[in-house]
Amino acid sequence: MFANPTLVWLLAGAVLCLMELFLPTAFVEFMMGVSALVVAAISLILPNVPIQIALWMILSVASIMVVRRLLPNRRVAILEEATEAETLTEILPGQTGRVIYDGISWRARSEGEYAIAPRQKVLVVNREGNTLVVVPEKLINS
Fold first, then answer.
1. Which residue, among 88, 89, 99, 94, has the nearest Cα to 134 in the 3D structure?
2. What domains, with CATH codes, occur in the chain?
3. CA-to-CA distance for 118 and 110, rounded, in angstroms?
4. In angstroms, rounded to a whole number, what is the distance separating the alpha carbons of residues 56 and 122?
């Protein structure tokens, strides 16, 4: 009544590798699929299913870690020429608010001890994660 473990590993490996084509996950699914194919070959020699599962998990994690080190870091860059933004909400000193930057709403905080009113032009001076650091434009121009 139980399926042949080798066929199950082959099917799981093929499905995981094909899923990477339709749902890209930075090679996570692909490496899990390759690990399943390796375990399918090993299952011909080692018929113990719990050991096969443990081996698949170890191979998957190890191969994902290796591939992540080999892939270049992809960082979302802020457009250098777009440094002007407009506040949507008031930004009080030490707190965050919202700005429209390059057509997208971002969380922002004021650089220094300046309160910035809504609908004010600001300049983006830095980015910390998903938070923009801004200064009032009138402060720079005065």
1. 99
2. 5-70 (no CATH), 84-141 (2.40.50.140)
3. 13
4. 52
Is the full-model pTM beyond 0.90?
no
Helix (H) or strand (E) run with residue 101 in it: strand 96-101
**What 3 state SS string does the chain have?**
CCCCHHHHHHHHHHHHHHHHHHCCCCCHHHHHHHHHHHHHHHHCCCCCHHHHHHHHHHHHHHHHHHHHHHCCCCCCCCCCCCCEEEECCCECCCCEEEEEECCEEEEEEECCCCCECCCCEEEEEEEECCEEEEEEHHHHHC
For 60-95, write each residue's pLDDT tens digit.
999 999 988 887 765 544 445 558 899 999 999 878
